[in-house]
Amino acid sequence: MSAHTQTAEKGQNTTLLCQESYVCSGTDEAIFECDECRSLQCQRCEEELHQPERLRNHERTRIKPGHVPYCDSCKGANGNIMHASMTGSRQIAAVRCQVCKINLCVECQKRTHAGGNRRKHPVTVYHAGKAQEQEEEEGMDEETKRRKMTEKVVSFLLVDETEEIQVRNEEDFIKKLDCSPDQHLKVVSIFGNTGDGKSHTLNHTFFYGREVFKTSPAQESCTVGVWAAYDPVRKVVVIDTEGLLGATVNLSQRTRLLLKVLAISDLVIYRTRADRLHNDLFKFLGDASEAYLKHFTKELKATTARCGLDVPLSTLGPGVIIFHETVYTKLLGSDHPSEVPEKLIQDRFRKLSCFPEAFSSIHYKGTRTYNPPTDFSGLRRAVEQQLENNTTRSPRQPGVIYKALKALSDRFSGEIPDDQMAHSSFFPDEYFTCSSVCLSCGCGCKKSMNHAKEGVPHESKSRCRYSHQYDNRVYTCKACYERGMEVSVVPKTSASTDSPWLGLAKYAWSGYVIECPNCGVVYRSRQYWFGNQDPVNTVVRTEIEHVWPGTDGFLKDNNNAAQRLLDGMNFMAQSVSELSLGPTKAVTSWLTDQIAPAYWRPNSQILSCNKCNTPFKDNDTKHHCRACGEGFCDGCSSKTRPVPERGWGPAPVRVCDNCYDNRGIQLDVAELPSDEEGGTLIARKVGEAVQNTLGAVVTAMDIPLGLVKDAARPAYWVPDHEILHCHNCRKEFSIKLSKHHCRACGQGFCDECSHDRRAVPSRGWDHPVRVCFNCNKKPGDL
């Protein structure tokens, strides 16, 4: 029914009303259906209408519960079928037009009320009862039943033009197919040049001409991406693809998408309307066969093992049917009745040096169209015959089909650079191999796409060349190599058997070392006063390796002596500070009480703020009000003013909020400070001045410490000024959030994301040092 049609009634019509409105005004229940009057009639209208002599012989039928009339447009006045070629039998009406006073099936409504003013006619919707539907089905022949099964089939977008799967998961795929999860299916797909009628071919071959897949007379391609639909008659998933040679963007990705569809298909139809078979057809199938065997066979085997599929995915490709439609030329093989067309096709493949070994079979089916429409009956029989053959490709559940497509999409995805596009082949290796290029020599990786997700390293068959910028040399122990082992070694500050401080002392005296896990220390840079030889000439071999984007590189400057010394000093300072925190607080409180004025409350008696009653913790600072002498927190005693009555003046000093507000405080003579208390007050002032001076000195020492830290930074560490946030949790660094370097990767992290400790021998850290979460998860030695 047209989307623009207005409905007068919605929902299921459990009671059919009189459509004549002759006597009853359309309010009585319908009892009879008159074929000549083309209406449902109540008891009173039926009697009145058929009283005239000429109307008494009208054929009337008493309707049953759930009855729906036939379409008036599908039959003539005598019930003759007018368009049997289109409908196959009398069709049940879907709606009744209230203006035209006729019953219409879905097809007739589209044909007569899809345009103009008729599409605005109000209609009444019919819903056939189960009893009538069952009765109608029993009276149908087999062909009509199969046609009826495909009436509700709709297509959906499976993969878009960017190779993104448009179904969320396996359940969504099965829901859109509208089939059972346990149903065993096969996959049929179609290929061909744009404009050759691929969607039209699928509609007539599988769905009796219904427009399941969209067709259009416009110049632009109406099929973008990959569309799918389920054929409930033949139990197959039908896939429509985008045409070749079309004016599209991302041509390389769309071409690669075709091979993914081919890989999950059991039968492929190559549709061509050329009067003579072009070389592009044979080139396409030959390149597809080569790419399938080279890249997809291994991946399909891995998918079977990885997903635990009960039904193994066949490593042999699908069967191919070449559907050739001509107008002015003869079909292939008609000039040579003794030779079958398939042999002529094999000869064409051989002449073009294209070998379609991946396909399980190749068949030719041709039709010559003298007058439209095209005859698809021969193609339909050939498809059904191939689907019945299960010797090579067996049916499988829809979940298996989805998992195979998902695995191929995850493996072979991503953009293809323009400089790597090869136009001499439909499916070049660049479409399916890793796009990484060595930074030193420029050669490409030969592994499959997205292999890094499985932990497989990059690989190239060509040798690399040395580049001073990347220093891509790798040292191996010469003694171990002569014994048949290849052991990598790196220059570092100290040996693994030396303690950190002993290693620093040895480094200062005899330089860096090269240590082999099997042979021990094999080289020291300043072992002798003079005459020290280069390690390349004596104890190590040099190999040149590729530098792939995103790797750590091959920096051999692992001399981290300065940073180790700085870490040691920071550790000692932190340890002394933490261990001495308690005694320092106790001594400070005792010393403050000794030089405090007599009216100050002793620190040992101050447990909470005198105003807000907040308890003091070990690290909290207690402040005395210079006016009243009570203890306060910093928030309740942040104001200042002179207190001359206590001897504090004329400079302003700390007072609590209460004393600041009560400026007119008067002290008794007994409360005035004595000469002894005046001396204590002077001592207190001197103590505060010394404390402030020492604080300024400590703050001033932090500035050159930052400069020393930057100078001591190992070469692979990211500079501090480039680290703005944590590399893991992305928190921004501030004065309260310190930066820490991972000793393995050199990135900057906060303390929470880098509190693990682990040895990093490859960077010269033989003892446990700070590493980040990601590096700590890596197996083996870092």
TrEMBL record:
Q: Which residues cross the membrane?
A: none
Q: Where in the cell is it found?
A: Endoplasmic reticulum; Golgi apparatus, Golgi stack; Lipid droplet; Mitochondrion
Q: Which UniProt keywords apply?
A: Endoplasmic reticulum, Golgi apparatus, Lipid droplet, Metal-binding, Mitochondrion, Repeat, Zinc, Zinc-finger
Assign the protein's first listed, main location to one coarse class. endoplasmic reticulum
Give the matching SUPFAM superfamilies.
FYVE/PHD zinc finger, P-loop containing nucleoside triphosphate hydrolases
Q: Which residue intervals define the domain FYVE-type in the entry?
A: 603-664, 720-780
Q: Could you state one GO cellular component term attached to this entry?
A: mitochondria-associated endoplasmic reticulum membrane contact site
From its record, what is one biological process in GO terms?
Answer: cellular response to starvation
InterPro entries for this protein: P-loop_NTPase, ZFYV1, ZFYVE1_first_BBox1, ZFYVE1_second_BBox1, Znf_FYVE, Znf_FYVE-rel, Znf_FYVE_PHD, Znf_RING/FYVE/PHD
| Protein's UniProt name | Zinc finger FYVE domain-containing protein 1
Q: What species was this sequence derived from?
A: Aquila chrysaetos chrysaetos
Point out the gene that encodes the protein: ZFYVE1
